[in-house]
TrEMBL record:
GO terms, biological process: DNA integration
Record protein name field: Integrase catalytic domain-containing protein
Residue ranges that the Swiss-Prot or TrEMBL entry lists as coiled coil: none
Ranges for domain Integrase catalytic: 1-203
InterPro entries xrefs: Integrase_cat-core (IPR001584)
Organism of provenance: Allacma fusca
């Protein structure tokens, strides 16, 4: 087994090195002005810190570049500016749903990619894509997506939420996931509480 990348083992601030992926689509309801509700698609942006494994969840309304940049702005405002960001890229996503591959498309193809690249440059953020056909490189954020989905599915069940309800639920799921222990849990009441990602975020 090869060594972990330096970004995974080097001491750094929370979310200084961040992986991101999209999950979804999730069906939500939208009021259409006195004519009832319309079912539309929404997505979840999953950010994960490489050093603490803390996650940050954001509800995203669509797969456009503008929506992604707005999501990234909210993340930076609440968690600070990352130095490096990592995401999957390549043929492994061709097997995914059309909605998810559109996300990779707008990160790589003109004209929308230009808008995103200009924003990243203005924030001095370096973006790294995993090598094509190497999904194992993104194991960290793939596991975060899986963990988030397991909580979200249990909470939603067969219900259809609106965007505000989904956003609120995601913050609760985020808090729950960030309370998971990073160290073995002792059965002795004399021992200290286990360290969690939440300790790095809120103390």
């Amino acid at each position: 087994m090869s060594d972990l990348p330096a970004t995974r083992v080097t001491q750094s601030e929370v979310f200084q090195n961040t992986g991101v992926d999209y999950a979804g689509p999730i069906c939500i309801k939208r009021n259409i002005g006195g004519r009832g509700n319309q079912t539309v698609k929404a997505y979840v942006a999953v950010f994960i810190c490489f050093s603490t494994h803390a996650i940050h969840l954001e509800a995203v309304s669509d797969m456009t570049a503008d929506a992604f940049i707005s999501t990234l702005r909210r993340f930076i405002s609440r968690r600070g500016r990352p130095f490096q960001m990592f995401s999957d890229c390549g043929s492994n996503f061709l097997k995914a749903s059309r909605e998810i591959t559109e996300y990779r498309d707008f990160l790589q193809k003109d004209p929308q990619a230009t808008v995103i690249h200009e924003f990243l440059a203005s924030k001095m953020i370096t973006w790294h894509f995993n090598p094509p056909s190497s999904p194992h490189f993104g194991g960290l954020w793939e596991s975060a997506v899986k963990l988030m989905k397991s909580h979200l599915i249990r909470c939603i069940g067969n219900s259809i939420l609106n965007f505000e309800e989904l956003s609120t639920l995601l913050t609760q799921v985020e808090a729950c996931v960030n309370s998971r222990p990073l160290t073995p849990v002792s059965s002795s009441p004399e021992d200290l509480s286990p360290l969690t990602p939440g300790h790095f975020l809120i103390g």
